[in-house]
């Protein structure tokens, strides 16, 4: 990290403490508090990390006020329009857009790692058919470290690279297997002749009894959804992956931890919760009732797919996703899809309502994604697994950046203790 740009002075009682201030390329400066506890015997207090930078990173930048998202400096709307998912994977992993030769080599490496060890099929047999695919994915991805011992040594750059390629390549296969298992259909092997997104659709929807031709419209839409979910700075699941990685855990275990965190409805589970909410609303005339519930302090209901910790303007991914929903449903001839109509009217009403305007609550990446995935034929239970397979490149890129930093330390936050002070044990008959 560069030298401090200036110094802040913190006065605590009669003591003045100098805190260095560092500046990044763009975005907020940071106040370096690493020596604060040693100099003040105090911790900072920020339970939701609303004002805390946990690391420095060169991968993704978000400006919540402008509604801007950059991957290695390139804006997400340009990448969604002009790039494709595997090219964005290369960009996130290596920092630059690939040449044609580099892209062909990378695509070839990913393609040759899409199969999973045949014995991993047995893992699925141990799950109930009605298990949520996210539960299956957490288990099977964590189990990758039981099969790929030659890419678990985090101190070997070559093994780090192979683990990253394996995870990006195998997550779609595992997600498709989780889906097939949940509907009682046989697993479909990856096909090297298909591109990444088309391969995933083929593994999900093909059956052995007949040829399955991937609809190019859906493959393009799938690729765009993957691109829009690829990485997003230090969100909860990425921070989970970083914290797990900081202990030296192998990359497969770290990604399994990220999948577990993503599952929550406040995070990646919101896409499933959002479509189920839109279906529950059902018709436009019931929207006011749900707006009232969302505004009611005593009602735990929230508009799923709305609001964001960082974006206090439109989530740029939601804008692209909304355009894609219009395009895909139009091309499929289902533009009058009632769920899409409810979503658009709900967005219109909410964005005119002072509660949402004053709290700067806008649709996020999860608001429209489910409508497209539903139109493609996916059950809602597959929405978060698709988010997870798409985000794997972001997680593993951030993990590689951290592990490759020789100064990285194990993450170990402290606390404000509010429990009992010292007290002696009391025998049972004296309680
Ligand atoms: C993702 O971090 C990332 O980058 C995540 C992500 C990524 O790509 O990795 O972008 C993916 O997780 C997107 C978010 C998906 N989650 C949802 O759509 C669930 C619904 N949204 C919320 O639960 C909420 O908005 C969060 C969790 C997303 C953000 O919560 P914060 O930042 O902790 O904000 P908050 O809960 O403190 O809310 C601020 C106020 C509160 O009201 P007050 O207590 O101040 O009166 O806004 C209200 C909240 O009650 N509020 C909502 C609301 N979201 C916030 N009210 C109604 N509906 C909502 N959706």
TrEMBL record:
Pathways per UniProt: Carbohydrate metabolism; tricarboxylic acid cycle; isocitrate from oxaloacetate: step 1/2
Superkingdom classification of source: Bacteria
Family annotation (Pfam families): Citrate_synt (PF00285)
UniProt keyword Flavoprotein present: no
Keywords per UniProt: Transferase, Tricarboxylic acid cycle
Active site: 308, 366
GO terms for cellular component: cytoplasm
Gene3D superfamilies: 2.20.28.60, Citrate Synthase, domain 1, Cytochrome P450-Terp, domain 2
CDD domains: EcCS_like
PROSITE patterns assigned: CITRATE_SYNTHASE
One BP term from GO: tricarboxylic acid cycle
UniProt GO molecular function: citrate synthase activity
Swiss-Prot/TrEMBL catalytic activity: oxaloacetate + acetyl-CoA + H2O = citrate + CoA + H(+)
Family per record: Belongs to the citrate synthase family.
Protein name as annotated: Citrate synthase
Organism: Gemmobacter aquatilis
